[in-house]
Design goal:
Elements lengths: L1 H37 L4 H8 L4 H15 L4 H9 L6 H17 L3 H49 L4 H7 L1 H28 L2
C-alpha cells in the first residue's frame, strides 16, 4: 500500500510539473504570435514561428500553421487540436475563440491574442502564488504521514521493539495493515483537498 502511495504521489508531482511546463510554453508561444502579428506577419507564419517549446504546443501550432496556409478555418483547427491536448485544452480554446472573434468582427487579431497572453500570464502567476501558499499544508501532510514511522523508530530505539509486535503477532499485523491503510487514505484525502484548492 505504501509503495502504491509513493508511486501515486510521484506521478502526481510529475503531472503537475508537466502541466506547468505546457502552460508556460503556450504562454511563450502566444506572446510570439502576438508579436509576429503586430509586425505584420501572416497568421500562418506567426503560428509557425511560435511552434516551438513542448510537444503539445508544437503539435497544435504546427497544425494551425499548415492548415492556415491551406486556407482552413484556424478557429476550427485550434478547437479540434485543443481536445487532443487536455492540459492546455482550455487555453487553446480561448485562443480559438479570440481568433473566431477577429474573423467575425474584423477586430485586430494581435490585440485579441495579446489579451489571451495577458490572461494566461495572470492565471499562471495566480497558480504560482496558490502553489506557494499550499507548500505549508503539503509539508504538514507529509510530516503527519511520517509520524507513525517515526514512532516505530523511536520505540525501536528505546528497546520497546514495536516492529516485532507489528510483524510477529496477529493483532500487531492487523494494526500494521490498518495503520498503513489509514496513512494512505489520509495522504490521498489531503492531496485531493489541495488539488481542489489549486487553480
Amino acid at each position: 500500500m505504501l509503495g502504491c502511495l509513493v508511486t501515486q504521489q510521484v506521478r502526481a508531482a510529475t503531472r503537475r510539473r508537466q502541466a506547468r511546463a505546457e502552460v508556460a510554453a503556450l504562454l511563450d508561444a502566444v506572446g510570439v504570435i502576438a508579436a509576429e502579428l503586430r509586425a505584420g506577419v501572416h497568421p500562418a507564419n506567426a503560428a509557425q514561428a511560435a511552434a516551438s517549446g513542448t510537444a503539445a504546443v508544437h503539435r497544435v501550432l504546427n497544425a494551425v500553421a499548415v492548415g492556415a496556409r491551406l486556407g482552413a478555418q484556424v478557429p476550427a483547427l485550434l478547437a479540434r487540436h485543443a481536445s487532443g491536448e487536455p492540459v492546455i485544452a482550455a487555453d487553446v480554446a480561448r485562443l480559438a475563440g479570440c481568433w473566431a472573434l477577429a474573423e467575425r468582427h474584423g477586430t485586430a487579431l494581435a490585440d485579441l491574442v495579446d489579451a489571451v497572453r495577458v490572461d494566461l500570464d495572470a492565471r499562471q502567476r495566480l497558480a504560482g502564488q496558490v502553489g506557494a501558499q499550499l507548500a505549508g499544508p503539503r509539508a504538514t501532510a507529509t510530516v503527519l504521514a511520517g509520524l507513525p514511522l517515526l514512532g516505530i523508530a523511536l520505540g525501536q530505539g528505546v528497546g520497546a521493539n514495536p516492529w516485532h509486535v507489528l510483524s510477529a503477532t496477529p493483532a500487531g499485523q492487523a494494526l500494521l495493515v490498518l495503520g498503513a491503510g489509514l496513512i494512505c487514505a489520509g495522504v490521498t484525502w489531503s492531496g485531493r483537498i489541495m488539488a481542489k484548492a489549486a487553480p
